[in-house]
Description:
By secondary structure, the protein is α/β, with parallel strands linked by helices. The protein folds into two domains: about 5-235 and about 345-405, FAD/NAD(P)-binding domain (3-Layer(bba) Sandwich); about 235-340, Succinate dehydrogenase/fumarate reductase flavoprotein, catalytic domain (Flavocytochrome C3, Chain A, domain 1, Alpha-Beta Complex). It is built from ten helices and 19 strands. The protein has helices at about 15-25, 60-70, 75-95, 130-140, 215-225, 255-260, 285-295, 310-315, 315-325, 380-405, and strands spanning about 1-10, 30-35, 50, 105, 105-110, 110, 120, 145-150, 150-160, 175-180, 185-195, 230, 235-240, 260-265, 300-305, 335-345, 345-350, 360-365, 370. The strands form five sheets. Strands 1, 2, 8, 9, 10, 11 and 18 form a seven-stranded mixed beta sheet that branches. Helix 1 (about 15-25) runs parallel beside helix 4. The protein is globular. The termini are close together. Succinic acid binds near residues 47, 254, 255 and 380.
Amino acid sequence: xxxxxxxxxxxxxxxxxxxxxxxxxxxxxxxxxxxxxxxxxxxxxxxxxxxxxxxxxxxxxxxxxxxxxxxxxxxxxxxxxxxxxxxxxxxxxxxxxxxxxxxxxxxxxxxxxxxxxxxxxxxxxxxxxxxxxxxxxxxxxxxxxxxxxxxxxxxxxxxxxxxxxxxxxxxxxxxxxxxxxxxxxxxxxxxxxxxxxxxxxxxxxxxxxxxxxxxxxxxxxxxxxxxxxxxxxxxxxxxxxxxxxxxxxxxxxxxxxxxxxxxxxxxxxxxxxxxxxxxxxxxxxxxxxxxxxxxxxxxxxxxxxxxxxxxxxxxxxxxxxxxxxxxxxxxxxxxxxxxxxxxxxxxxxxxxxxxxxxxxxxxxxxxxxxxxxxxxxxxxxxxxxxxxxxxxxxxxxxxxxxxxxxxxxxxx
Length: 412
Ligand code: SIN
């Protein structure tokens, strides 16, 4: 069996995994194991953006309150405060690593999305996740201490054999077993710190907005190793995924409503005023439920035609092109939509520095549960979560590997 030893083993190549890998590489060798290509992740499909208090009219208190309200106040307040106060620094860091956010005369363009009381979504047109991934991948690919393993699927965590009580004490995690899908070989990766940054599990649902790789295997591996898992019932449904026979459930970004798009029912009525004072920009769970109610009487549509062709093509180039392939012109046609599974608010329970209850195992991003989202995530807080908590885990993993003198190669 192929054996390979690293200081840090990062499973998953979304924004959380890449951001961690880049920072951790200052302290040791890093392996990134990813199911497909480096670029294929939930982050890559995030259209909306990354929320941060960047405008004079805005405040941390407002962003915190919006996040808690969307989460039905089931959020961990400390996690929320940490994430939101860190957000402006993270935008600065992303600009420093080369992310090209949309700007007007040197100022960041800020969008609004559901549940936000102010404009605070920094974005790169309608492909923000892809642009952040591009910039981080560029750095990662050129880093001497980072080794990338594409087409490698981690399927089991490696555990040390020295736990005293198998029933109540999880064993130390010392790496993972990985299938090299190109060569059909099982490989043994040993690591001083193992990091799960495997993203979500949308594929569990027939209608979902996630890529094919979002199958929940991070949570499954951690669960089998007896990690603590929390709040898995809090699945977020995005209100607006394309609903056309024969077409995929393409995510139609909430920023379409943030920029003036409205939901209409089969009679052509704008119905959200009947459900919430924020109308089309109410939190996602409320909009999704309202759409389902209206769908009892016929198809529900998103309408942004009034913004005009030039604006739509410039602001939403990705959506314009992708809808065009399905014979829908955003500037001329109503877009048929319905809710689709989008995001897991629960996951592997961690502290605020990515530590799980298993020594040597860390997690952050969508696979993790810090409690930051409560029962329902506020729009564009997910890329932010990835950046903030992956950055915080660097110190925790570094301290762990410095303290941990004995670590062994796991056996199947
Ligand atoms: C969207 O653009 O609506 C998705 C982004 C997010 O889930 O926050």
